[in-house]
Design a protein that fits this description.
Elements lengths: L27 E4 L2 E3 L4 H21 L24 E4 L4 H4 L1 H18 L2 E3 L16 H12 L5 E5 L3 E3 L6 H4 L3 H7 L26 E6 L2 E10 L2 H10 L2 H5 L5 H12 L1 H4 L2 E3 L7 E2 L14 E3 L12 H17 L2
């Protein structure tokens, strides 16, 4: 038995007929000849409202205008007024070095700061969460804290506990960080990590573009004293340096070797870095590890005095120099 074939479909179907405006589920006009289905109308309205609110927020908050003294709003584009011109930052550890030596450090920084209208900042070891990293990392977060605490300072100078400021005749803002002074002293096209790093300091860097000033000794980069310009780049630099991934590495010299890694592998950091002769801000009490202190140098460091964890010798080594800087500051 043969069944009949189904009826053949018409090869010329009827033209598409859009829904009438009176039919159920009709859409909201979206453009000529196109409608928006009813189920999408609320989503579209919410999206439009969100875009309008976002535009209003950007226009009123996105310009970086904030309070003069910084804070969460406006710090990204805040331009320091230069009041104070600089802040001296030293991380203290009275439990380890004793009250007498700690008081001597504070006196030294304050006498120098008063000479030039600078401010001082003395956080303590243990003030910040380091996630089990060595306490020497405190200097990095302390500098970031200082930038927040003194948003109008132009420069921040970190000076470690094993260093004394010796000369009242040299200022950070005019004798170290001024454009002409930097261009006169910068060590260009030089291995960042001596003696044979293939990464060199930029040869075309201008003084006005420098945001970080470092020195080297016979062992490499030195982080016991360095100068930062208060800038958005410097905030980025400190946050990069303090990244948990670097703190978790078992670097032999903790933050110092982390910095050596960063400046060699991140051109954005290297592009703002200037090396200056060691005695500019970091003379040593002995020539065994670097350039030895000479009368008139800005600062002297005792690099071996902190090595003993039980009985640091900084106070004994510093005593002869304390007499010199006290006399110099009193007679200024």
């Amino acid at each position: 038995m043969h069944l009949p074939y189904p009826a053949r479909k018409d090869s010329n179907p009827a033209l598409f007929q859009p829904r009438s405006s009176n039919s159920r589920g009709s859409g909201m006009p979206f453009s000529k000849g196109l409608t928006l289905p009813r189920r999408y109308r609320q989503h579209g309205i919410v999206l439009i409202v969100f875009v309008l609110v976002a535009l209003v927020w950007i226009l009123t908050h996105g310009s970086g205008s904030g309070s003069r003294h910084g804070g969460p709003v406006g710090t990204a584009n805040h331009v320091p007024s230069g009041t104070p011109p600089a802040v001296i930052v030293t991380v203290l550890d009275e439990n380890r070095f004793g009250a007498k030596y700690t008081a001597l450090l504070k006196e030294n920084r304050k006498l120098y700061a008063e000479k030039y209208g600078y401010e001082t900042f003395f956080p303590n070891v243990g003030d910040y969460e380091l996630l089990s990293a060595p306490s020497s990392w405190t200097k990095v977060v302390a500098m970031r804290h200082a930038m927040t605490k003194f948003p109008d300072a132009t420069y921040l100078w970190y000076v470690d506990v094993d260093t004394f400021i010796m000369s009242p005749h040299q200022s950070i803002d005019k004798d170290v960080m001024a454009t002409a002074k930097l261009e006169e002293k910068m060590i260009v096209d030089h291995p960042v990590v001596p003696p044979d790093s293939i990464i060199h300091t930029f040869s075309h860097l201008r003084g006005e573009d420098v945001d970080l000033v470092l020195t080297q000794d016979k062992q490499g980069l030195v982080t016991s004293t360095f100068v930062l310009r208060n800038s958005e780049w410097s905030r980025f630099f400190l946050e990069t340096w303090f990244d948990p991934i670097y703190r978790s590495y078992n670097f032999q010299k903790a933050e110092t070797h982390a910095l050596e890694h960063i400046v060699q592998w991140h051109p954005t950091i290297l592009s703002k870095l200037a090396l200056v002769p060691q005695r500019t801000i970091n003379s040593y009490s002995s020539a065994s590890r670097g350039e030895e202190y000479q009368t008139g140098d800005l600062a002297v460091r005792f690099p071996a005095c902190t090595k003993s964890s039980k009985s640091p010798t900084c106070e004994a080594e510093a005593e002869p120099y304390a007499m010199v800087w006290r006399s110099a500051f009193r007679n200024r």
